[in-house]
Design a protein that fits this description.
Gamma-glutamylcyclotransferase; 40% strand; 27% helix; AH_C; globular; 3-stranded antiparallel β-sheet
Length: 109
């Protein structure tokens, strides 16, 4: 995040599925009914362009999500074209019931 300040922790609207991809990183997808916990950062677009996007895994892309309060935010989301293949290969685990990557890591710990 290149030292970008965190604005707050936030929760998405309840319309996503949340996955662990190979146990390495989280991914949300607008195809469910879960609310996901995340963090909002005051991220300059230059940092997004030059650092964050190039470093993201190929399964993810930048999308616009809805937050619990109805506002919108940019987020990394699971590419639509990847969902079926990852489900069939077993490379993703649905963790929507938790909705929180940190809690998932603690349980897996």
């Amino acid at each position: 995040m290149q030292g970008t300040p965190m604005v707050c922790r936030a929760r998405s609207a309840a319309k996503y599925r949340y996955f662990s991809v190979r146990g390495k990183f989280p991914a949300m997808h607008e195809s469910g009914s879960a609310s996901v916990v995340g963090e909002l950062y005051d991220l300059p677009l230059k940092i997004l362009r030059d650092h964050l996007v190039p470093a993201e895994p190929p399964e993810l892309e930048i999308g616009v999500i809805e937050l619990e309060d109805g506002s919108a935010a940019l987020a990394t989301v699971l590419r639509d074209a990847m969902v079926d293949g990852l489900l069939q290969s077993g490379d993703i685990q649905d963790i929507s019931y938790l909705g929180d990557w940190r809690e998932f890591l603690q349980r897996e710990g």
